[in-house]
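Lab notebook, bench 4. We co-purified these components, and the gel suggests they stay together. Before we commit to crystallization screens, I want a quick structural picture of the whole thing.
Request: model the full complex, all chains together.
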Amino acid sequence: MKKIGVFVCWCGSNIAATVDVKAVVEACKKEPNVVFAEDYQYICSEIGQNKMADAIRDYKLDGVVICSCSPRMHEATFRKTAEKAGLNPYMIEVANIREQCSWIHKDIEEGTEKAIVLARTAIAKVLLNAPLQAGESKVTKRALVIGGGIAGIQSALDIADAGFEVDIVEKKPSIGGKMSQLDKTFPTLDCSACILTPKMVDVSAHEKINIFAYSEVEAVSGFVGNFTAKIRQKARYVDTAKCTGCRACMEKCPSKKSLNEFNAGLDTRPAIYIPFAQAVPNKATIDPNACIKLKTGKCGICSKVCTAGAIDYEQKDQIIEREYGAIVVATGYNIINLDKFNELGYSDCKDVITSLEFERLTNAAGPTKGHLICPSDGREPKKIVFVQCVGSRGLRPCDKQYCSKICCMYTAKHAMLLREKHPETEVYVFYIDVRTPGKNYDEFYRRAVEQYGVHYIKGQVGKVIEKDGHLEVQASDLLADEQLHIDADLVVLAAAIEADDTARKIGTMLTASMDTNDFFTEAHAKLKPVESPTAGIFLSGMCQGPKDIPDTVAQAGAAAVKVIGLLSKDTLKCNACVASPNENMCNGCSLCATVCPYGAITYVDKEFRIPGGVQVRRVSQVNEAICQGCGACTVACMSGAMDLKGFTNKEIMAEVESICK
Amino acid sequence: MQEIMKQAKLKAEELLTKGVVNRVIGWTEGDFSYDCSPATFTLDNLDKFVYTEFCGANLSKYLIEESKKEGKILVFLKPCDTYSFNQLIQEHRIKRENIYVVGIECRGKVDIDKLRAFGIDGVLGCKTEGDKLICDTIYGEKTVDKVDVMLEKCLSCKGKKHVVYDELIGEEVVEEPKDRFGMVAQLEAMTEDERYKFWQNELSKCIRCNACRNVCPACSCVHCVFDNPDSNIASKANTDRFEEKLYHIIRAWHVAGRCTDCGECSRVCPQGIPLHLINRKFIKDMNEFYGEYQAGEDTETKAPLNSYTFGDREPHEFDTKEGK
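Here is the predicted assembly.
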């Protein structure tokens, strides 16, 4: 007879407040095969662990059930203890009587009843558990960083500096991301390009870093330590090995009417272009939607002026397949589309702009060489209104519920810089709250108000309309309790930020979970902030949630450290709970291989004895080093030939039956 | 039909004589003309081969075992049978290289029970003439509208085109697509209680003879879960009246996305349970959720239930309207 021991944890009052742990112990003692049951305040503590180890030895237990928190919290702890005490770690079952019981029940009777059922269920399962051994798998010592903004750049540099190869995949022609478009950075007001470009150059020069610019990740398979990614290198129609970045083609290109993405669409660029002066790689790209040669077959001027002979109109997209041990997601953000914010006039009035457009209009490398003008007629604005929280912290369907976090600070920065450069301009900032947590942040904001005389008005802007070549801003001042009408020359909207539109697709590829806003979720909000719940996937920067440059760089470094920790291992312990087929029942139908996300299943023709001879049948085989134990094959298999060790069909059925008893 | 049967027999004889195949799988008559069942033939017993209005049986499934044997086998497949054939190829269950497929013309097969319901007994043979079925009986010749006596599966015929063959016999008549989902829609329109009553009534007739499973080309596991005491399902489905019904539900799930709607389950059910409606409901749902898909149409297309695309509907989008 198998001997089972049961421990019921109080978790202080976390469990004991809504579950009568003594009653659970008594109920467990009545279950068949249970030879020992005890409760304790904290089973995860050293004393608790020792009690468990003692019981395993003293009672010669074959299996242990621990009624406690979620297995995600302490299953590993309990397994280690069991192993030390001489019990196979997979003979441990955790009944979650905290997250799924005590925390959701208010009534102690109900809570206790459910806890008893959950304990009984775990006992039913552990009776069927078999000892398992985990194998090992190798680690590919190369990391993939998806996204080449400051987050991706920092993660890549840190990983590469530790001696590991890194590939950066950036969808745009140059790395640099949003930070490369910014003028100055808060709270120190240093020039964004001045601090970013050295890093971009470092990336470009680093022997361990490979940049796949103008490329996108198309598919990812595999698992921690052994990912395979398909990278689509989009056709630039320029041989990057030959292009010297001389820009002669850009001058001569006759198709110059494409909106310049780098300048937020405020001016135009040629069909063949290098997005900005410090671009990395400093190579030209032909925009196929604008190029006359690619569209009509006639032109070819760039090819004539290119002395390097780099133009190649026949170039095709290339698919590159590479292997990686770890993946850093750094897909970044965009500002929301303001089409639905009609009341603020963004679509209708040229002089209503976003903060990002404002950055470009004040940047020396921008469309106006840093000379701030009204886009409608080129006059210098004398009265400027900034509107905060446009689309952030709202409850309408077009709003984001979250705080975009960076707007308060950059608006203070914009206002301050304006007053510094053009003291004659009047600057108004409308806000819901001014949020400035962060080192030297509040001091920065106060300087804008106190030293630079920016008019901060608590209240929201209701409407912006164009009137006689000016913008009439209708707003309320909540503190003075009055309606305001301001005749402004320029209105700057701090549009909410949102996850980049590629994030959802990449999240799906990586099976990395995301929240409803398409931000990647971290494995633990507090204790695992840079890890995705999917092993081997790490999060860097805005893809995980709104954050400013200092936070992004810090997180990027943290993600890099996690990657380095992973890549410095030669092997990883595999999951012992892997799929295993019963050849006698296998139809060889390939359904399991079709649904396997890891490519762990193959087929062989095998001889089987049948009455009167031998028959060859096609049967499935599982590569245990590759199988991640997701169980997809188990549910797909009609005959029930495929089973998952540690979660066998029988074990699950025993659990269900035990609940229904 | 006589002509097609003659051609088929000649074709079988030719291929056997030439040694292209060493066996033939076709249909043979039992004690009565309407009592047709699948059989294998060599030159020795080829005279027993028939192809009549009563050859409704789908021969694809028999190839699972037959194609493992030595030598090539000739199989006659009606248009709807070719879908099951393709599905089995896709599932690696039959060896294509061991099979010679002759697609054979079909204009709908006859249900002997429906004939009897018309009071036509003692049938010696039948032939189709236009829309009519002319029956030669021991009581003389009788004529009925063929559509009234066709097998249920033929009333919702997928079309007269063979999706796979090495050679064809007869014509591939072009036919108007028939309404496959009318009855399913009627069931969907019922209230939950009505629908429950309907199935309660139908499934209570089940005698667990396993004919539906045994004939189903999609239900072809080496070891069926219902025969496997380790599956924890086998004994269950036998113990009480409620679990009895689970047998059909489990079976429907197992063939979901793989069922070609060949209708064999209902054809062989001795109790006349409209089992195909369960499978057809799945097919209708899948078509609605993931776009039109016909299992067995080819051997390449990935089935919607075991493939993932970025366009797939998310679970929360499945909040279907009342009655579904």
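The longest strand of chain B covers residues 23-29. Worth comparing against the SEC data before the next meeting. Chain B has a mean pLDDT of 89.
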